[in-house]
Each structure stands twice: as structure tokens, then as C-alpha cells.
Amino acid sequence: MPIYLQLYLSIPYNPVFFSFATITPTTTELYVDADKLTPEVTAHLGQDVVIKPYDAIYADAKALSETRKQEAGETASKFLLSNKASWALSLSLGGEGQVEEVRSPIGDAKAVKNDVELAGMRACHIRDGAALTEYFAWLENELVNKKSTLDEVDAADKLEQIRSKHDLFVGLSFDTISSTGPNGAVIHYKPEKGSCSIIDPNAIYLCDSGAQYLDGTTDVTRTFHFGQPTELEKKAFTLVLKGVIGLDTAVFPKGTSGFALDVLARQYLWKEGLDYLHGTGHGIGSYLGPIGVGTRVQYTEVPIAPGNIISDGMLLWPCPVRICLLTTAEPGFYEDGKFGIRIESKPSSDTDSHPNPILTCRNRCYHGA
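That's the Probable Xaa-Pro aminopeptidase P sequence above. Prediction below.
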């Protein structure tokens, strides 16, 4: 039963809410604060889902544990609990000896995109690419032709306005990183009205942004210079771009670790004695969070399997073997106090036509910008 919940006030930029749920063959119980549910959602859930207070999960979990002990005694098997679950929930189920922490298969299943999700992600990225193209054209015209004075927040607000005109737009997927000059060297820079910088057309402008659409989530970074870049800036941009292409066009044996793929993005910078201090990739949700569960590309030894979502943030965890998984690839270069460069694309892992077990990065979500 699909449930569409617009609850950005609960978790900013994410169409989800804090909750627990218990599902049996005959019952479904949702533990959530009542004020998080709109009348429309409550009506949609109807009689199929029992709504309980969020904190009631602990008492119910304890009761479940005690009932199980009474019925099975010492032979009762352990509860399998996600290693991301809280200690309070673990204690409610009996704690050590009664609980075995495991990696939840739910996250890995979410990392694998089905055909509908992949189609939606491609469609929303086309619309988002059109919005970004319009935005950067507007920004260049304002800065270069009109000589307008715009600060970083002014620009970010304009980008949101342009995106909002497109079909199925819900909101942003995270705070827009609209950064000029030295601010671009701050990897997770957040401009604030009143303290942010005026955009300098003679400095590098880095924009990392994304949106939530009903058919998918976007997260894209582009770097521009509206004047004459220095030789160092041009060289750094070229090295980063070569890294993006290296990862986007990768062909590799099944079981390859993220460590190996990470090298493809960093190799050109490394040859010049340069590097960047963040991961190369991360998974991305489908109308969920902009950083989703999936395989990451970085200095780790987690094998990559067909259907893994490769991201440019870190090494992704292994996912169920499926083709066409969506990821990001975003190498960068940052000169402290001067400028930052980052380019972000979205390759996906897929099987290759080669007779041997080979994977390849393809089926990308293209942006027009």
C-alpha cells in the first residue's frame, strides 16, 4: 500500500518522518507522533494501520520479548536487530544475549533501484537539468552583462524558484551550497543571508544543489568561472573532470572493491601530488534522502557487486545483485582560502556484455548543465 507523506517539517528536505513500525502477517502498527500525520494521511491509512505513540514501541517491544520467552523458554532464538537501531530498543528486546545486531537487508534493498525508480530518476534529472541550465544562463547574464550585485543566497533562492516551476517538484533535497571564491573551498559551506559573500564574476563559483521530485531525488554539483580563470584553476578543473570521466566510464570485474574504483577518480590529481579530503561517491534515494544507502567509493575494501549503487562519497556497502544501480561520482579539488572545484555525476553499476563477470558504469542520469 503506497503512502505519500509530505513531512518536511519532521526531517528537513526529506519526505519521511521519525517512526517505528511492526508488521506481521495480519497486523501493521505505526509508531509516530500524531501531530506528524495530516488528516489526509490518517484517512489514507484507514483501518489497515494502527497508529500508536512513537514512544510506545519500547513497552511493546519489551512485551514481545517477554511473551516470546514464555512461549519458547531457553530455546527462543535471538531477535535480529539492525546495527543502526538505538540501545534503548535493544534493551527493550532483552539486550545482550537476546539480540543479535546485523546489517539490515532493508537498506540494501532500497539501494537497488527498480525499473520504475530508474525511469523516474532519469525523468526528474532531465527536468532538473533544464532548471540548472536556465539558472546558470541567468546567473551569467546577471553577473557579466547586467553587472548585477548578487550574494550567494540571492543566487540560491533564484535556483529554487526556477526548479519550483517544473513538474512534480516538491522542494529542495538539501541546503544549496552556493559558494564564490574561497567559500568554495569549504566542502559543506552553507551561505547565510547577512553574512554570505557577494558573488565575484572573476572568481570560481561552485554550486552543489538538489531537489525532491515525486519521481526522484537529485544532487548535482557544477563549477563555473564567468571571467578569466588562472592557469592553476584551469589545470585543477581539468584534473577533476578527467576523474569524473574515469569513474563514469569504468569497466571492472565483479567483486572489485570501492578502493579500486576510487583510484580512477583520484589518479589524475595524485599524479600532480594533489587530492581531496572527502569521499568520491555516495548512494542517492529515489524521492528519499539525497545521500542514500548503497556502495561507496573510497578507501575501503567492500566488494562491489552487480546492482550496487556507486556513489562519489565513500565506499558503498554491498547490495543485492541487481543491474542499473544509481550512484554519484564527485571528485574535487580545494585550495584553502582561494577556491573550490567539484563536479558531480551519477553513474550506475550494470552488467556488461562480456562473457566474463564484468561490471560497468553506465545508464547515467544526464544533466543539461
